[in-house]
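To: structure desk
From: M.T.
Subject: fold request, one chain
Message: Could you run this one when you get a chance? Sequence is below, nothing fancy, just the single chain.
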Amino acid sequence: MANRWEFDVLVSGMVFLDIVFTDLPRPPSPGTEVWTGGMGSSPGGIANLAVATARLGLRTSLAARFGDDGYAEWCRRVLADQEGVDLSLSRTFANWHTPVTVSMAYDGDRAMVTHGHPMPMSASELVGTPPSTRAVVVELDDEPWWLPAQRAGSLVFADIGWDPSGTWDPRILDRLEGCHCFMPNQDEAQGYTRTTTPESALSALAELVPMAVVTCGSRGALAIDGTSGERVEVPSLPVNAIDPTGAGDVFGASLVLGTLAGWPLEHRLRFAALCASLSVQQFGGALSAPGWGDVADWWSTLNDRCAAGDPLASQLLKPYAFLPDVLPAEPARALRRADATIARLSDLPRR
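Reply: Done. Structure tokens follow.
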């Protein structure tokens, strides 16, 4: 059955160039200049999700529109050559430039400034007939380009964007028909279900999809898997977060991995919480995503802390005791993090 699928995950969306400033002493204000302690450049947007799944060993295909500028060329090289993301469904468009987001991480959150133009081709036109894939990860408020994949047997993991109008039209939930999993954050879940707590929102969503997940930021996540009857709530891990960019994508990618692997719901949620906590300790969207080496290092460090008598580490040892059984046997590959520039001379071909 495994040979039936060409890919594990298919995603589509807009790739941004993300420039992230961290360690701001204060927010910028008109007429002033603020020097930051850190900076990183990374592919962003849908690239966050594509890299997160690829770094966990899932065969990932990305259908995206790229401009013909230097930013796009760099993003393509990072995604395809460095991260191993398949770009066979992606296309380059002349005279269309890469959208750029400047993100400023401050006080545990971030502010962003973005410039870009409408995409030159719809996702449905770009994807066409999708390749065989075990799962697709989609935005519920996008055009339903994933329907052919869904009809072919792919599991659909759906998220949804923030509603700036504040309308929270519940009719959008009608699009969940046929989706396997819906994973909004707490505000989105309560807004669309007209409920006042994440628990009540989760119960309402569980009536619509086999697997419902509500993320609550630093407070963790809760989920119901209707196929197994499991209902689980897990806390987030206490970490020194420097940049939350892409953490939600990492959480979703980890959830997809655990679901495709058939893990119990609690293991899926705890693994997703762990990977998200590892990502916020790095900066730079896509390139902050952890790989298996980061997970293995965390588990090894946790055991060392337990041996040294760290009570917090001892509390985490039992809930994460499943990790040795799921860690890959082969050595983890080295990962590259966000740099303060999009190209170094060492990256360029020698003349």
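Reply (cont.): The CA atoms of residues 109 and 349 lie 38 Å apart. Let me know if you need anything else for the meeting.
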